[in-house]
Design brief:
single chain, 380 residues, alpha+beta, Beta-lactamase, eleven-stranded mixed sheet, two-stranded antiparallel ribbon, 12 helices, 17 strands, globular
């Protein structure tokens, strides 16, 4: 039976049953891909949302917790890891849209404790696009807490000239989110949960899962199949702290493909996240989102989401001025925590997208292959 969900200013999500031929064909594609994947990767539970021209079909598999055997559904909350960076980027875009920051601002303009440091020469844009000069993937253990964070930045020395090399980094975009929230006069968690998420119409997306929704929060499982959930760390909320459902992420995808349904500052914020700031190895870096020409080969998408791209520095070619969203492009972002794996991909010109959430961290390549197969089936 079909049902309509209506929230916020976005178009309603139409949840399609498997009764029509197109939906049944899509279910065959998803089922035949997901079953072997879950078995091979030891994934307890997985939720897929497929967005196609405003319609959303959900495919739910397995359990949210092995202990409770609660089945996964489209309201199950998953940790989405670095997909959180796209929310952080949108918050920064929103701060810019209402005149609180400019991406060209130097970081120290928004945090007096950074004055007189290298952050007098590093822009907010460089922080948001992983190009401040070699901030690492993670904070060192001694600095991975709120009390030690600012001292770490005060003493950090770049390896490269700012803007020269892309090195994917939680401390980089994390600091961008922290400073953007400061410009709004709020702690990051407050700015995200009380301002941005409600404006996006996302009522089942959280940094701190409310007690009343604890039963929806899936249990993650590590590489040894031990129960695990994300632990606190410096700028954890900004870099990898979002917990959400496939239904809310589908709504988020629709907002990104149809920003005209949102208030003007959010339209401008999403445009800022979709703009291309530089190119590197066939990928164009947005804010949070990573962009590719579409159509795209599977290999190109696998290369762009490879370990080498995440772990090694890469020389960048800046686009000056930033390039607005072209006609035919694909946006994507992977995300992982110790016990969860997420992937979001969408093609605005085709009005299609895929969300994949799992309560185990499994290889990015397997997520990309699954999503690519689904997108290909829809775009035939």
């Amino acid at each position: 039976m079909n049902k309509i969900l209506q929230k916020s200013l976005l178009p309603p999500l139409l949840i399609v049953s498997g009764s029509c031929m197109a939906a049944a064909d899509l279910r065959t594609v998803v089922d035949t891909s997901v079953a072997p994947l879950m078995q091979q990767q030891g994934i307890p539970g997985l939720s897929v949302a497929v967005v196609n021209k405003g319609k959303v079909q959900y495919f739910n598999y397995g359990v949210a917790s092995r202990d409770t055997q609660q089945p996964v559904n489209e309201d199950t909350l998953f940790e989405v890891g670095s997909v959180s960076k796209t929310f952080t980027a949108t918050l920064g875009g929103y701060a810019q849209a209402i005149g609180k920051i400019k991406l060209s601002d130097k970081a120290s303009q928004h945090q007096p404790a950074l004055a007189g440091t290298v952050f007098d020469r590093i822009s907010l844009l460089q922080l948001a696009t992983y190009t401040p000069g070699g901030l690492p993937l993670q904070f060192p253990n001694a600095a991975d807490n709120a009390g030690a964070m600012l001292a770490y930045y005060q003493h950090w020395k770049p390896t490269y000239a700012p803007g020269e090399q892309r090195l994917y980094s939680n401390p980089s975009i994390g600091l961008f989110g922290y400073l953007a929230a400061q410009s709004l006069g709020q702690p990051f968690n407050v700015a995200m949960e009380n301002t941005l998420l409600p404006k996006l119409g996302l009522s089942n997306t959280h940094i701190n899962v409310p007690a009343g929704k604890a039963g929806r929060y899936a249990q993650g499982y590590d590489k040894n199949q031990k129960p695990v959930r994300v632990s606190a760390g410096a700028l954890d909320s900004e870099a990898y702290g979002i917990k959400t459902s496939s239904q809310d992420l589908a709504r988020y995808v629709i907002a990104n493909m149809h920003p005209d349904t949102l208030e003007k500052p959010l339209q401008q914020a999403i445009a800022a996240t979709h703009a291309g700031y530089y190119t590197v190895n066939g990928m164009t870096q947005g804010l949070g989102w990573e962009r590719y020409p579409y159509p795209i080969t599977l290999q190109a998408l696998l290369d762009g989401n490879s370990t080498e791209m995440a772990m090694q520095p890469h020389k960048v070619n800046w686009l000056t001025p930033a390039q607005p969203q072209p006609a035919n492009v694909l946006y994507n972002k992977t995300g992982s925590t110790g016990g969860f794996g997420a992937y979001v991909v969408y093609v605005p010109s085709k009005d299609i997208g895929v969300v994949i959430l799992a309560n185990r961290n499994y290889p990015n390549a397997e997520r990309v292959k699954l999503a690519y197969g689904i997108l290909s089936a829809m775009d035939n």
